[in-house]
Amino acid sequence: MRLGGELLLGLVFLGVFIMVERRQSSPMLHLELFRVRMVSASFVAAFFQAVGNFSVLFLIMMYLQGVRKLTPMAAALLMVPGYLAGGLLGPVTGRLVDRFGPAGPASAGLMIQAVSLFLYAHLGVSSPLWRVTAISIVNGIGNAGFFPANNAAVMKGAPRGAYGIASGMLRTFANVGMVLSFATAMVVAATEIPRRLAFAIFVGTGGLSPLLRTSFTQGMHAAFYLAIGLMMVAGLFSLLRGPVSA
Predict the structure, then answer these.
(1) Residues whose CB is less than 8 angstroms from the CB of residue 102 and which lie 6 or more positions away in sequence, other chains included
(2) Which residues form the signal peptide (predicted)?
């Protein structure tokens, strides 16, 4: 009941914020940008992608440290190849966007991320650790497809003189999604294990008993399936963003 009230209050404040912004000569958010389908769809795609994907690292680090008993450093090193793959392939996506437009590469990146989430959802208490690294590489490839293409879509669709504003609004949508993603992950973790233990696992000062390992892993699977659904929503908006001239 308390959560529902807080959500309702948040929606009310959001409505008030939009009303105030519409009357400002120099608003923080230029609502006119939402009239450009290319830009508005890219904002929404960024939001849902962030909600679905940013909690991945949080959950996997808890899995590696709490379920698999790795140190924070060892757990982090397993994820490094995925970020390297994303960094190396990002410029390739940029060239593809210049040639074919942003919709295809961005949507393909989202689908690849959805595949990685599905694979994460099948990790067990004794899965080989190399599998975590392999899936992180798949996720990194998906990130390399989505982020450069979605960013380019916003820049290509924004009116001349509004590039800085559009970029800032894109980051706002992504950052709000990121916060919601971490909050969702915390709710899942706190549902399956005590909150204090969840925090201790994340900072590397605690672990899980055999019974709680299985329970947390099952909760982690549910979170990943939810993330897949969110990624599909992001993919829908990515496909429907329309041509650059829209």
Answers:
(1) 42, 149, 150, 152, 153, 156, 241, 244
(2) none
**What are the CA-CA distances from residue 134 to residues 137, 174, 222, 228 (Å)?**
5, 26, 21, 18
Q: How many structural domains does the chain have? A: 1
pTM of the model: 0.85
Is residue 202 within 8 A of residue 208, CB to CB? The reply is no
- Provide the domain limits for residue 105: 36-239
Is-contact 71 208, C-beta < 8 A? no
Residue 23 lies in a domain: no
Question: Is 17 inside any structural domain?
Answer: no
Please calculate the CA angle 136-151-15 and round it to the nearest 5 degrees.
105
What type of residue is 53?
N
User: Looking at this protein, which amino acid is placed at residue 9?
Assistant: L
Cα-based angle 115, 119, 125 (whole degrees, multiple of 5): 165
pLDDT digits (tens, 9 = 90+) for 188-242: 766 777 777 777 776 767 777 787 888 888 888 888 998 999 999 999 998 887 6
- 119-140: per-residue pLDDT in tens? 999 999 899 999 999 999 999 9
Residue 246 — pLDDT band, cuts 50, 70, 90? very low
Q: Which tokens is 141 given?
A: 């490839």
CB 177 within 8 Å of CB 46: yes
